[in-house]
Amino acid sequence: MIANVEARMRGVLSWLAVPQFMEGRFIGLPVSRWLFAVRVWLAIHLALGVAFWIQLDGAESAGVIAAMLALQTRGQVVEKSICCFLGTVVGGVMSIVIVGLFAQTRDLYVLAYSAWLAVCVFAAGFLDGNRAYGAVVCGYTVSIVAVIHIDDPSSLFSEVINRCAAIAIGIASIVLVIDVLAGPDLGPAMLARIEGGLATARTFTENLLRAGPDGGTDAQTVRLMGAASNQHLFLNALPTEAVSGSAQAGAVRAVLAALVGEIRAARAFALAGAWTNRSDGSALDGLIRRRLAGEVEARREAAASAFAAARVGRPVAHAPRMPIYRSRENALRNALRAFLASTLTGYLFTLTGWSMTAFAWAMVGVIVCLSSNAPDPGAMTKGALIGLPAAVVLGGVTQFVLLGGVDAFPLLMLGTAPALLGALLVTSSPNPALTGAGLLTAVYTIVVMQPSNPQSYDAQSYLLLSILLILVALFSFVLVRVLLPTCDAQRRRWVLAAIRRDMDAALGGATRPRSADEDQLLDASRIATLASLKTDDASVRETDLRLALRMGDLARAARRIRRALERMEREDSGAESRMNGFADAVRAALGDADARRMRQLAGTLADASEPARLTLAADMAWAADLIDAPADAHVSGGTR
Hints:
Elements: H1 2-17, E1 25-26, E2 29-30, H2 31-53, H3 60-68, H4 74-102, H5 106-124, H6 129-147, H7 156-180, H8 186-211, H9 218-229, H10 232-237, H11 245-274, H12 282-312, H13 328-352, H14 357-372, H15 377-403, H16 409-427, H17 432-449, H18 459-482, H19 488-508, H20 516-532, H21 538-571, H22 576-592, H23 595-603, H24 611-627
Antiparallel strand pairs: 1-2
Helix pairs in contact: 2-3, 2-7, 2-16, 3-7, 3-17, 4-5, 4-6, 4-7, 5-6, 5-13, 6-14, 8-9, 8-11, 8-12, 9-11, 9-20, 11-12, 11-20, 12-24, 13-14, 13-18, 14-15, 14-18, 15-16, 15-17, 15-18, 16-17, 19-20, 19-21, 20-21, 21-22, 21-24, 22-23, 23-24
């Protein structure tokens, strides 16, 4: 009932705010991008207006936050707002701690601040999306509060309060505007995307079941799994968008888990029909194929049921979490890079004795923190190298040409429209490289202008600030590329090592806190990460993906075997000693990766009448095949 009422209200607001005649393109760009830019532009000036009205110190921070929270959908904006506010509170408290302990000792102050940045960047390396952004905010809040006001420690507490107030105003403004102007909801678009993915996956798996290895390729398998595992950023935001968001997110996760399971089972079915390396005849062949075909059908039914629940916002039983792959090695390198970059910049700027060097040092910390949250830190700093000089130019033209000394707030809104709307249109680009540059341009245009009440037109201050921002962009670009650079070859080794550790743990019987569906989603996330890494040699990429798929299949089969053994041991209490002896032999064969012994043990169950034992025999025979798989064992031609 609540979900239906909410849907009707949103429908009315959408009709009022975005009539049908507004759909299409305007000046060559989709109207949706123009609406996004206008919404954020209004939110920025609403935040500035409220901050001016209550005479908040550092009022421009409210506008900066509204720009930083510029996302396309309502749920993403709300989630990012929550993470931003919590990160600001934690960072504000840490600012007070660092200044209180080290304000009188320059060297310890620099090291303590840099160490805190490293801790926040390291934590962000294990999170995703807006949650990682919240961890980064914890770090760069110290940059903005403690570093910029290093010369006046007595004002620190009031600065923390002002910063939190500015954050609250910016958040309230962007959330209010996106609600009143009916910003797009995430749920309908996600359901449409999931429905299209289900149809595509159904076609792919049907081809594999019908044509065997010639019905598809490993590249298609990985692409479909990657699309399923890359939905976590949107799923995290669903609970903040609607009352039924949590239930809907759980149902969608169940759909994605079933989708990944269907794809993996169909691929295994195709391979099982191509491999002919079993010496015990067709009995186990038939068991494996029936087992995998049954799994494909079961996964399809589970996906359809969960998708029906997602449509109406109904919770599903045992909704899986959606773990994602994060590299410890990458997180550590990002943290060390942040520490070194902040320390070197702090000492260098401190030794120069220039005015406003604390501001430049703080901005380097901000850029380094934000870059660590990006898939490619170098691309983020490249965006800063474009965005910050663009902000300097746009801010200067707006302040000294378009405004030219006026002091009326409506004129301020009109004067900033060309620069901010242009930057926000770039921010909404589907090109990720342009998105980062556009966002930094919008944010730092406000920083350059430093909106105040009354507005200041100090050309000397603008010139000094502009020089420092350009230096910040250059320093950030050089430091991130020089200090502990990480290449895709290293990332590829880390992903394969993580997949191998997981396979070894499954074969060795290490217990896992995750369910079978969560294991599959994590494996899909790893493989999608591997597929996204660039390499000059296409054959290396294909080999790595083939190896990753094989190790993931073997880990999944080993876990299923061990769970089946535990279940049968509990049920066969009357024949406990016999079952325990068999289970111990299977576990030993798994631990030793002994394919021959696994087939022998599977053969003893091939004539069993109980479905559970036949299923176990099929899983054991399939695991043995995976252990002995040929080097070129892949879909579309990999047979022997």
